[in-house]
Write a structure and sequence with these properties.
Shape of chain A: globular
Number of domains of chain B: 1
Order of helices and strands of chain B: EEHHHHHEEEEEEEEH
Number of helices of chain A: 8
CATH topology of the largest domain in chain A: Rna Polymerase Sigma Factor, Chain: A
Strand content of chain A: under 5%
Structural class of chain A: mainly alpha
Number of strands of chain A: 1
Strand order of the largest sheet of chain B: 1-9-6-10-5-4-3
Radius of gyration of chain B: 20 Å
CATH class of the largest domain in chain A: Mainly Alpha
Strand content of chain B: 15-25%
Distance between the termini of chain B: 7 Å
Largest interface: A-B, 87 and 67 residues
CATH superfamily of the largest domain in chain A: RNA polymerase sigma factor, region 2, helix turn helix motif
Number of helices of chain B: 6
CATH superfamily of chain B: Jelly Rolls
Order of helices and strands of chain A: HHHHEHHHH
CATH class of chain B: Mainly Beta
Number of domains of chain A: 2
CATH topology of chain B: Jelly Rolls
Helix content of chain A: 55-70%
Oligomer: heterodimer
Distance between the termini of chain A: 21 Å
Helix content of chain B: 25-40%
């Protein structure tokens, strides 16, 4: 993972792209992110040629939408992930897989989110990372499977050969630890 | 029927489905817009994914990838006639994510007639569920009706009632297929709503949970 100084540098670079269409700044972002976005897409099942094409597309979108990047809201990695995820939604039509698994899906009452949550989003991004460093590797990888690769709890259970209930409670625990960390310090 | 005005707060499975892009796209867009209108930020799930992206082992791009990206950027900039004005200026103020989708839908198709005073724009989002923007002209009264499946409706602008409750921006309703409703606006208020219909998909989890929380 990137350190704080590097994250700040990438945010500066993206701001330079937005403000003055700086091609050198863009080239630096491209050389770091394009190969990682490509890996992400291959992880989701794209072959190398398709992943290359979509990664290109994602990076072109990064140039075009750079002005929408708000460093108080998210890190560059989180923002580029979002662009890549949205392209993924367009490209890999989800026809085969059902939506949110009703067994797992639950909307809970409000009351937890702070009114100034948005002001602190960037800080939250940093704290999520800090909390991830503290979590046992096993929990980090569960969070990754769910939040990054987009596997449902039952798919994760199948993949890791664990009972569904165990997967659910471990993810809940890992996420709760992270939330606690966000609310603490 | 339920009218929900408090902010829903989601569990990890829902968050993960939204953050990762696994959620049915129409429902994902609906919840994104709902959260944006309520000022709820859901950064944690996406931050986990952002950090995971950094942890990826890079896969080399083709040697001319950057040059091709610049070529695409240059081509695009020449072609672009500048953002087109939206058909209805009231929709300029909706959250950016939705605005983009509306503009893109308007470039492909026009608003269709849905009965007196009623216009709809299919947003053409992939997946099994359907999401559209509905415009109710001032003084419109749609006859009582039911839907085939379930319907989630979020008020984007203006105010409308449905025979059960009144909705302003950020309010949403969740209907199952059995409940009759009658959307209407009063004589000087135009209203816009974002509506998702599940077309037989499985929103039961969401809907059931909402009903449990809010009674009815």
């Amino acid at each position: 993972m990137l350190g704080e100084a590097e994250r700040r540098r990438f945010a500066d670079l993206l701001a330079m792209v937005a403000e003055r269409q700086d091609r050198d700044a863009y080239a630096q972002l491209f050389s770091y992110y394009a190969p990682r976005v490509k890996s992400y897409l291959m992880r989701l099942g794209a072959d190398s040629a398709l992943a290359e094409e979509i990664a290109q597309d994602v990076m072109v979108t990064v140039w075009r939408k750079a002005a929408l990047f708000d460093r108080t809201q998210a890190s560059v990695s989180t923002w580029i992930f979002r662009v890549a995820r949205n392209r993924r939604i367009d490209v890999f039509r989800r026809a085969k897989r059902p939506d949110l698994d009703p067994e797992e899906t639950m909307l809970l009452p409000a009351g937890v989110e702070a009114p100034d949550a948005r002001l602190e989003a960037m800080e939250a991004d940093a704290r999520v990372r800090a909390a991830m460093v503290d979590l046992p590797e096993e929990q980090v990888s569960l969070l990754r499977l769910a939040f990054y690769e987009g596997l449902s709890h039952s798919e994760i259970a199948g993949k890791l050969d664990l009972p569904l209930g165990t997967v659910k409670s471990r993810i809940r625990l890992a996420f709760a630890k992270m939330k606690a960390r966000l609310e603490d310090d | 029927m339920i009218k929900v005005t408090t902010a829903p707060f989601m569990d990890e499975a829902t968050r993960a489905a939204l953050a990762s892009g696994r959620a049915e796209p129409a429902l994902g867009l609906f919840l994104d817009v709902l959260m944006a209108m309520r000022g709820i930020s859901e950064i944690e799930g996406e931050a986990i994914a952002g950090a995971a992206l950094e942890a990826e082992a890079p896969t080399a791009m083709k040697p001319d990838a950057l040059a091709m990206a610049f070529a695409a950027i240059d081509r695009g900039d020449q072609r672009k006639p500048g953002p087109k004005a939206m058909t209805y200026p009231e929709l300029e103020a909706v959250p950016v994510a939705l605005r983009d989708v509306i503009c893109s839908a308007e470039s492909k198709r026009s608003w269709s007639y849905g009965g007196p005073g009623l216009k709809r724009l299919d947003l053409g989002v992939p997946g099994g569920a359907k999401i559209e923007v509905i415009r109710l002209a001032a003084g419109t009264s749609v006859p009582w009706h039911t839907h085939k499946g379930q319907e989630l409706t979020l008020c984007l602008h203006g105010e409308f009632s449905d025979g059960h409750a009144t909705y302003g921006p950020g309010d949403f309703s969740a209907f199952d297929g059995a409940t009759r409703h009658q959307p209407r606006t009063d004589k000087d208020t135009v209203a816009y709503a974002l509506a998702v219909t599940d077309a037989g998909l499985r929103f039961e989890g969401v809907l059931g949970a909402l009903q449990k929380m809010f009674g009815q």
